[in-house]
């Protein structure tokens, strides 16, 4: 009897969640197909209606970024990062937007903080992009090597580090660090018969 009494409420809440998910899915589809103005409008409405949901705020920031409103995206993400300092996903989005704004040092700082908190392959992959965009090719390949290592691709990690070592010309510390890491990774590989 009590189950039947709550059924209409359950159906209403399920329909509301489904409608919300459909709106979010539409935002992502609009972004994917380049309809940024509509995506921004819909993501803004979702954010207004559900301000506690970080996903909607990230979608709004992404739509802003993709539409070329880079500084608006950065501003939005900086605010979100202050509210959710432990979120590596927010740090990833912020670092990416900062890179696209040409603010490489700040982007690296955000990534380094996130990597210290929760090292992961996707953060190292973005670090490789940031370093590459900043013109720091040896460091870009070092980060790429870390990405490969975290993906259990030791041979590719070694290859990235070997390439990095060919790009170092005037930094003995960096060269020694790369050489040391190559040796460390080579020791992890099974010996060949």
Task: Write up what this structure looks like.
The chain has 193 residues and is mostly helical. The chain contains ten helices and no strands. α5 packs parallel to α7.
Residue-averaged pLDDT, rounded?
A: 91
The SS-based structural class is: mainly alpha
Helix content: over 70%
The count of strands amounts to: 0
CA(first)-CA(last) distance: 72 Å
Largest sheet: none
Number of helices: 10
Percent of residues in beta strands: under 5%
* Radius of gyration computed on alpha carbons: 22 Å
Low-confidence stretches: none
Briefly say what this structure is.
The chain has ten helices and no strands.
Give the SSE map.
Elements (H helix, E strand, L loop, with lengths): L1 H31 L3 H14 L4 H13 L3 H14 L4 H13 L3 H14 L3 H13 L3 H14 L3 H14 L4 H17 L5
Helix pairs in contact: 1-2, 1-3, 2-3, 3-4, 3-5, 4-5, 5-6, 5-7, 6-7, 7-8, 8-9, 9-10
Keywords:
single chain, 193 residues, mainly alpha, 10 helices, 81% helix, elongated
């Amino acid at each position: 009897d009590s189950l039947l009494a709550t059924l209409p409420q359950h159906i209403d809440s399920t329909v509301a969640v489904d409608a919300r998910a459909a709106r979010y899915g539409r935002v992502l589809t609009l972004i994917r197909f380049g309809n940024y103005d509509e995506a921004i409008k819909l993501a803004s409405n979702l954010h207004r209606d559900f301000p506690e949901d970080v996903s909607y705020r990230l979608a709004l920031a992404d739509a802003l970024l993709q539409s070329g409103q880079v500084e608006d995206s950065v501003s939005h993400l900086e605010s979100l990062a202050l509210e959710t300092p432990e979120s590596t996903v927010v740090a990833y989005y912020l670092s990416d937007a900062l890179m696209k704004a040409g603010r490489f040092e700040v982007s690296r700082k955000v990534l380094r903080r996130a990597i210290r908190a929760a090292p992961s392959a996707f953060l190292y992959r973005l670090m490789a992009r940031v370093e590459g965009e900043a013109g720091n090719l040896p460091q870009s390949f070092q980060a790429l090597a870390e990405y490969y290592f975290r993906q259990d691709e030791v041979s590719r990690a070694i290859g990235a580090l070997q390439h990095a070592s060919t790009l170092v010309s005037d930094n003995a510390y960096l060269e020694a660090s790369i050489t040391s890491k190559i040796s460390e990774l080579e020791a992890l590989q099974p010996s060949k018969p």
